[in-house]
Amino acid sequence: MNAAEFSFDNPIPIDSLRKRAYNYRWATVPPGVIPLTAADPDFPVAPVIQQALIRYISDAVFSYGPPLGLPEFREAVAAYHRVRKGIDVHADHVIAVDSAARGMSVACRALLRPGDEAIVFDPVDFLFPRTVEGAGATVRRLGFDWRRRCFPLHDLPALVTPRTRLIYLCHPHNPLGLLFTRAELQLLVDVASRYDLRIVCDEIWSDIVYPGQRFHSVLSVAGAARRCVTLTGFSKNFGLAGLRVGAIVAPDVQLNRLIAETSEAADTIGGASTLSQVAATAALVDGWPWFTAFLAHLHAMRDLVVDGLNAIPGVRAYAPQATYVVLADVSTYGQRAEDICAQVYDRAGVALVPGSTEFFGPGARGHIRLSFATHRDVLTEALRRLATAFAAFAQ
After folding, report:
1. Residue 130's beta-bridge partner residues?
2. On the chain, which terminus has fewer CB atoms closer than 10 Å, C or N?
3. How many other C-beta atoms lie within 10 A of the C-beta of residue 334?
4. Which residues contact 349 (CB under 8 A, 6 or more apart)?
5. What are the residues facing 183 on neighbouring strands?
6. Using the 8-state DSSP alphabet, how is residue 94 labeled?
7. How many beta carbons lie within 10 A of that of residue 60, not counting itself?
């Protein structure tokens, strides 16, 4: 099948979403509330994924799989990196984990010890500081330059201390929707080389990149392979959040061994479900026509949301280069983002994520984040409600 055969104009499966979509979404809000919260698509998965699961289930055998992942899954992940990212990745570089989030935790526990420090960008998804602190280490934040709309990477050396061990990167960036250039990634690797640091890069958003933009993996730049680890998952590109499946890519042999040991997969404590790996393999091998149609839909929804937000007086939004989230500036209203989101929820029935320290760090103050991976009609109604709610704030 080709992309033209898939349509995202059909109504979303709202009854199923109200029963199954948790994590701040449809199953956690009353009927009538629109949750533009967690970045999880509202659409059924690609048919090839559904069919692969049905075939696997029909044998009714659910034995243990290999600790580091099914061979077909590891090879599919490696091929995905070679073909779509231009990186020389092999199956033995790949470690299956039960989600990219678990990969973040495993990588931090492998590379950090109590008393160590890790450089985290600010703002960024809460899992970055959370997994650093979960390893007993301390977070040092590189703040975003809002005027120039970039991270001041040349300031990185000033954050490095004798206890610094890790640069922790989200690329593409959540919640800013930004891409790092190859030159910026090279600068990061050069800093890491100079101070003997590791880099862990969460690349789960790397397929959600809009026309005119290009994603470069950190592993594609000179000197990266021996000190960099990347993480990926299948919740953003293929809607498999509930299946809990991801992968760690570590080309360096010693680093790979350390991470594999930390994952505890060999002891059957860690690892990923074989059923989930079957779904992810089907997605990577045969799911790209569906994804192409999905990305075209997201492109249209991005423009709809950004234009709609910017039409509201006092709200400022920039079109993300990647991801399907928008971080909008609402600081002109003079209220905490948490209070604005609470009032929008109560008055307009739209759930948003506030730019609070809890979710994104202190750098997101005065902002709100919303996800647009849903149907056009849902977004159109949400924007209408938001315009009404913000008009009331201005009075």
Report:
1. none
2. C
3. 10
4. 32, 33, 34, 385
5. none
6. E
7. 6
Residue 53: the pLDDT is 98
Tens digit of each residue's pLDDT (9 = 90 or more) over 361-385? 999 999 999 999 999 999 999 999 9
Where do the DSSP E strands lie in 2-102? 34-35, 94-97
DSSP character for 370? E
* 265-278 burial: b if 16+ Cβ within 10 Å, else e: beeeebbbebbbbb
**68-105, pLDDT tens digit by residue?**
999 999 999 999 999 999 999 999 999 999 999 999 99
Task: Determine phi and psi for 139, rounding to 5 degrees.
Answer: -90, 130
The CATH 3.40.640.10 domain(s) of the chain lie at 64-286
- Domain 3-45+288-393 adopts which CATH fold? Aspartate Aminotransferase, domain 1 (3.90.1150)
Q: pLDDT tens-digit profile of 125-176?
A: 999 999 999 999 999 999 999 999 999 999 999 999 999 999 999 999 999 9
Other Cβ atoms closer than 10 A to 23: 13
- Specify the length of the chain in residues: 395
Report the amino acid identity of residue 150: C
Alpha-carbon separation of residue 167 from 196, 199, 201, 258 (angstroms): 11, 5, 8, 18
Q: Please give the model's pTM, rounded to 2 decimal places.
A: 0.96
